[in-house]
Amino acid sequence: MIAGPSGRLALGALRYAAMAAIAALLLLPIWWILVSAIRPGGEIFRYASDVGWRTLVPERLTLEHFRTMLAGDMPRAVLNSAIVSLSTVVVGTMVNAAAGFAFAVFDFPLKRTLFAFVLLTFMMPFESIVIPLYTLIRTLDWTNTYAALIVPDLANGLVVFLFRQFFLGIPREIYEAARVDGASWWTIFLRLTMPLSGPTIATAALMQFIHQWDAFFWPLVAASTPELVVVQVAIARNITLEQANWGGLFASASTAILLAMIPFLLLQRYFIRTVTASADK
Length: 281
Fold this sequence. Notes:
mainly alpha, MetI-like fold, about 70% helix
């Protein structure tokens, strides 16, 4: 048994060392992708099988892969993914927050059953609904449009669940006092509960942004035109049946990773706080 201040200090140092080692192990593949993006094409796999310091530290650097990437469809793909992701965040946050508010505050027939279906939506594999969803999109004449990329992902069962858990934590007396003062439910939702739900909004925004930024299968099915290419589709186009542009693949993947890290680093503390609070409830 470790006792005393020195023992606790040693145990804490050991814990942090173990966490640092695990983090380094998890980050090694990402680091290899990043350094491969700035290696000359002929050296990308030269030291991949014989693992050593040259595997992780390039001997020569080049930006040729990034110059080629910028001359291709990657800039358009980044713009499209940004439009789709940000539109989903802005509209989807309001839609999911309103649904979470309804499940937390109101009593209506089949409330528990409907909420169970909401929970099932984020447990169901997306591939199982691709055909009926595409049929609906085609019926609405939305194929190869931004609407096809944005609208199906506005409602998110997990985000509805997070908002519901937060709104359940607000004392019922606050809602009743606001109603006595003459506030409508819409006013209570917009001016009372939404300003209080900052961490949940940040978490919802992050989850919806990452989901859309990483989308590949649905954009490939619903909007396959070059004008609507998104980031993940543009990355995949570096690999064809005839050849593989590994330098372009790693350069575009590195760009996608670094851009996606920006909102995550800004909002990660709210994400952890909200998920922990929802789990406790």
